[in-house]
Specification:
It is a single chain. With 293 residues, the protein is mainly β. The chain has one helix and 24 strands. The strands form six sheets. It has a four-stranded antiparallel beta sheet, with no helix packed on it. The protein has a four-stranded antiparallel beta sheet with strand order 2-3-4-5, with no helix packed on it. Strands 6-7-8-9 form a four-stranded antiparallel beta sheet, with no helix packed on it. β8 and β9 (88-92) form a beta hairpin. It starts with a strand and ends in an 11-residue tail after the last strand.
Length: 293
């Protein structure tokens, strides 16, 4: 039986906390508050929190193999970003022509490519859709999926043979056969489904190949077995859990971001910790986050 204990709550009150990941080099969890255009860092041992104001909303980011900068997916595209100085170097803006779209969930695959999906924030453009892109170390951008609304839950099996992805309003996490050499995928199948009112959000995979998914509107994080069976449900004290990541020296600490955006005054009274970062001790080991390059 999976053992999980809440050991820390970081009172950051994010509007839309997302994209959490562990940086083993500095012993910190990093994440973004998308709607506040703020980057956060939390040192696990000292419990010190730092934050940086950003030039745009930051959907997701990655650490790089041979660069001290962050590879960032800002609202309008890919860029290198140095948090300490604010220095910004744009790489590509694949949806610059689509007003109302922005970058959303993403991460690196184990071959060093950075993947980013977008979101259609303005609903008055019914024919406009979001998509999923990858960026190689050479700066090449490839579109892989189109016709999306909210790209989310991107992660890979430990052997890189499976890619998981969700278009959140569809209430389904899909699984694909992934070709690690070419960065292409095929053979979509439904991996898991959520009920109406609950949407799959950020996800990660542990060392056993189980998928952890934060579920927006569901007040929970769910661990799915490789065959899609629901293995474990972690109840959350907030309705809008947004993303999950393993960290710590043994990669057995689980961090969960959350959001306050869209909650009524009454809902906020019932869940005053909405928007905080939650940290759990587990008996499960995660996988080290891959780096770009």
């Amino acid at each position: 039986m999976t053992q999980i204990t809440l050991i820390d709550t970081v009172p950051c009150e994010n509007l839309l906390g997302e994209g959490v990941q562990w940086n083993h080099q500095d012993g910190c969890f990093w994440w973004t508050d998308i709607h506040s255009a703020t980057l956060y860092r939390y040192h696990l041992d000292t419990r010190k929190i730092s934050h940086w104001d950003l030039p745009e909303k930051l959907g997701c980011f990655a650490f790089a193999k041979n660069d001290s900068r962050l590879l960032a997916a800002f609202a309008s595209g890919f860029a290198w970003f140095e948090p300490q100085t604010g220095a910004l170097a744009w790489i590509a803006k694949p949806e610059a022509h689509l007003i109302g779209n922005r970058s959303n969930d993403g991460r690196c695959d184990r071959q060093g490519r950075f993947w980013m999906g977008t979101i259609r924030e303005q609903q008055h453009t019914p024919d406009q859709c979001a998509a999923l892109y990858s960026l190689t170390a050479d700066g090449d951008v490839h579109q892989h999926l189109a016709g999306l609304h909210i790209s989310n839950a991107l992660c890979w099996s430990p052997d890189s043979r499976k890619l998981y992805h969700a278009d959140s309003p569809s209430h389904a996490i899909n699984v694909y056969d992934f070709d690690a050499a070419t960065g292409t995928f095929s053979n979509r199948q439904i991996f898991a489904q959520t009920e109406p009112g609950v949407e799959p959000d950020g996800a990660c995979v542990d060392a056993q190949g189980y998928v952890w998914n934060a579920q927006w509107g569901g007040s929970r994080v769910v661990r799915y077995a490789p065959d899609g069976a629901k293995d474990f449900v972690l109840p959350m004290p907030v309705s809008q859990a947004t993303c999950v990541a393993f960290g710590g020296e043994q990669l057995n600490v689980l961090a969960v971001t959350s959001a306050r955006i869209g909650l009524s005054d009454e809902a906020l009274r019932q869940q005053p910790q909405a928007g905080n970062l939650f940290i759990f001790q587990t008996d499960i080991q995660g996988l080290e986050e891959s780096r770009f390059g």
